[in-house]
Amino acid sequence: MPEHIKKLLLDEIKILEHELAHELPAEIKKAVAMGDLSENAEYHMAKQRQDFVNARLGQLKRRMAELSLVNLSNIPRDRTGFGSTVVVYDSTKDEEIVYRLVTSEESDVSKGLISTTSPIGRGLVGKRVGDVATIVTPNGKRQLEILKLTTIHDEAAEAGQQDQAAAGGK
């Protein structure tokens, strides 16, 4: 799991756990002291927030567990997968586009960061250079031809070579 994603999720978990353990009990206690709970808006809002925070914590912890199970050795070395950077030709738009396949937490279409669970990401996963992916989007079908592929393994090897070159140059 990318460290910055792990940190993002852990930070949100920490904030929500603090709210659940400290802030919400104080709000609920204060609302209970006001009396009649059947018409106590503060009490009902605090309880609703407590339910939401519990649900969100469950989602975040499940996502952390899912991401911790990602095994880089299972990511293909010759096809697109998580961490790949792909240059595609979009025949619909008559242009080349660069996408990087990332987790849903990292996705930012304006920066070319496409989630592996998005329609484009799902369509590109498993493709090789020369393959054409037909993507069904809300705006219609798109044909994306894979022109260039750099997998997460290629990037790791390239970074290792750069580190060796830098160490040797000292």
Short overview:
This protein has 170 residues and is an alpha+beta fold. It has helices at 3-33, 41-68, 119-124, 152-168, and strands spanning 85-90, 95-102, 113-115, 132-137, 140-150. The chain has a 5-stranded mixed sheet with strand order 3-2-1-5-4.
Task: Describe this protein's structure.
With 170 residues, the protein is of the alpha+beta class. It folds into 2 domains: 3-69, Transcription elongation factor, GreA/GreB, N-terminal domain (Helix Hairpins); 73-153, Chitinase A, domain 3. It has helices at residues 3-33, 41-68, 119-124, 152-168, and strands spanning 85-90, 95-102, 113-115, 132-137, 140-150. It has a 5-stranded mixed sheet. Helix 1 (3-33) runs antiparallel to helix 2. It starts with a helix and ends with a helix. The mean pLDDT is 84.
